[in-house]
From TrEMBL:
GO terms, molecular function: DNA binding
First-listed, main subcellular location of the protein, grouped into a coarse class: nucleus
Origin superkingdom: Eukaryota
The protein's name: HTH_Tnp_Tc3_1 domain-containing protein
InterPro entries in alphabetical order: Homeodomain-like_sf, Tc3_transposase_DNA-bd_dom
Alphabetized Pfam families for the sequence: HTH_Tnp_Tc3_1 (PF11427)
Residue ranges occupied by any Tc3 transposase DNA binding domain in the UniProt entry: 3-51
Subcellular location: Nucleus
One GO CC annotation: nucleus
Organism of origin: Heterorhabditis bacteriophora
Length: 59
């Protein structure tokens, strides 16, 4: 099973706005169509989100 793509800049912006307006994580996940876990990871680590280099098999 593969890993989903990272959140786009648009999705990140949506999550920030919805979170600051008081939406629950479940409601944000439903609106953005991403998992609650993805939303929580982003909200906990906004500054570092998407900066970690993925390590995989060499090409």
């Amino acid at each position: 099973m593969g890993r989903a793509s990272t959140l786009s800049l648009h999705e990140r912006g949506q999550i920030k706005v919805l979170s600051t307006t008081g939406y629950t994580v479940k409601r944000i996940a439903d609106d953005v169509k991403r998992s609650r876990k993805a939303i929580m990871n982003f909200l906990r680590h906004q500054e570092e989100y998407g900066t970690k280099k993925s390590i995989g098999l060499p090409d």
